[in-house]
Amino acid sequence: MTVHTTGSTAPQGTTPPPPPRKPAAQNAAPTLRDAFRQPKSVWAIAFAATVSFMGIGLVDPILPAISTQLEATPSQAMLLFTSYLFITAIAMFFTSWFASKIGVKRTLLIGLVLVVLFAALAAGAGGVWEIIGLRAGWGLGNALFISTALAAIVGATAGPSAGAIILYETALGIGMALGPLLGGLLGNVSWRAPFAGTAVLMGVGFLAIMVLLKKEARPAHVAPLASLRALSHPALRTLALTAIFYNFAFFTLLAYSPFPLEAAAAAHGMEFGALGIGGVFFGWGLGLAITSVFVAPMLTRKLGLIPTLLTVLGLLAVLMVVMSIFHASMAGLITLIVIGGLLLGIMNTALTETVMEATDLPRGVASSAYSGVRFLGGAIAPAIAGPLAAATAAGAPYLLAAGALVVSMLMLVLGRRHLAAVGTHHQLTPVEEAEAISVGDGA
Fold first, then answer.
1. In whole angstroms, how far apart are CA 271 and each of 65, 241, 275, 329?
2. Which of 34, 366, 387, 420 is most buried, by the most CB atoms less than 10 A from its CB?
3. Mind listing the pLDDT tens digit of every residue in the chain (443 residues)?
4. Residue whose C-alpha is closest to residue 429's, from 30, 92, 19
5. Closest by alpha carbon to 153, among 35, 270, 243, 307?
6. Sign of the CA dihedral 126, 128, 129, 133?
7. How big is the CA angle at 35 (ends 149 and 197), to the nearest 5 degrees?
8. Helix (H) or strand (E) holding 442
9. Distinct helix (H) and strand (E) counts, the chain
10. Helix intervals (H) in 252-304
11. pTM over 0.90
């Protein structure tokens, strides 16, 4: 905590007074009572954050339906992820500057308006290329919202921030888990329904934040190119390169898996459909949420951040190889996808915690730069996985993902000399830990 003084100094030769102590309430461990006794403005942001994170996995169950009903190839359907993530990546480099110019509340509201607009337009789209373009606008809105939601929820709480952060992390976990399930349930009615449902829910979130969230003080000024310049920092650059290859594997699993999953079900004489895929990825999202919020912090404190990263990257590479072997087994693929969610949750949080410990850059600038680079890896993966599977074999994208994870490990090992500060800093505060979870899972 920064202590602001009045500008006076103690007389020479005297002992200066001790710095003021934090109130006991600020130092107390957060409880469930702290988490759920919040102002209405905090609840409004938490609701909007839940819906925002739901939007990440919402389209996953309906990709095969979009491919079939709009006469699009699987490769074209997966571009819904590519356009969304590519624009998110570019936007992330500038969100900290944008929020510093117009304020957190306005940034949140602009982000929500964009999501409502483009999700609603996607619900009425007539072709796959139209949806791909609209998803790009959706990605811009989501980047603006996710990048400022944590700062808003901490600023809006009336008591200790740790209680509000528990609520925020809960909202994040619920959103990651329920997104694919809602997509499956609504997608069972029509592929258009998940888009329309998101627009309605985000509209409710917009109104709640507009009415309940007070205008806050403008954040400290951030230069427009601060996040791009931050990549010249060797430690941040090392972790960004590690993340771009890791995220390639993450979105290979997320965006490509619905297609071999449905094919495996068809081979067994079953029609899996949007509801079945949504159920599988509900398990994936639930696993990811549980390990990112609860397991990752404990594991990184026990093993250390770098050993945790290398261990989980290695396990994920093995998992991808096994998925390439069992891609035609429905039961095998379901099991491996859920296991993948458990590992990805640990990796997301541990990698972002490492970013926050490795540099002395402002957290907002470092996370924007890191997120911008890693989302590019996510954007590339769906664009490659579909054509690769069509040209070779259904298991090939998983093998390529395994190779990307090996390269990710190599980037981390080669750049490890730049990460000497990792593990030497103080234990993360509740705000820093929540930011690691939210930035990590805001894929």
1. 12, 40, 10, 14
2. 366
3. 333 443 444 444 444 444 444 443 444 444 556 567 788 888 888 898 888 888 878 899 999 999 999 999 999 999 999 999 999 999 999 988 998 899 889 999 999 999 999 999 999 999 999 999 999 999 999 999 988 887 788 777 766 666 666 777 777 778 888 999 999 999 999 999 999 999 999 999 999 999 988 876 667 788 989 989 999 999 999 999 999 999 999 999 999 999 999 999 999 888 888 999 999 999 999 999 899 888 988 998 899 999 999 999 999 999 999 999 999 999 999 999 999 999 999 998 889 888 878 888 887 788 788 889 999 999 999 999 999 999 999 999 999 999 999 999 999 999 999 998 786 654 555 555 555 555 555 55
4. 30
5. 35
6. positive
7. 50
8. none
9. 20, 0
10. 258-267, 273-290, 296-303
11. no
The answer to whether 142 and 52 are in contact (CB under 8 A) is yes
Radius of gyration from C-alpha coordinates of the chain: 22
Among 433, 396, 178, 194, residue whose Cα is nearest residue 288? 178
Contact 210, 75 (CB under 8 A): no
Q: Which amino acid is at 299?
A: L
How many residues can be counted in the chain? Answer: 443
- Residue 37, classed as helix, strand or coil, is coil
State the DSSP H helix or E strand holding residue 307, giving kind and residue range, or none if neither.
helix 305-325
| Type of residue at 15 | T
Q: How far is CA 190 from CA 65, 71, 107, 187, in A?
A: 9, 15, 32, 5
* Residue environment code for 176-190, b if the CB has 16+ CB neighbours within 10 A, otherwise e: bbbbbbbbbbbbbee
Cα(178)–Cα(204) distance, integer angstroms: 18
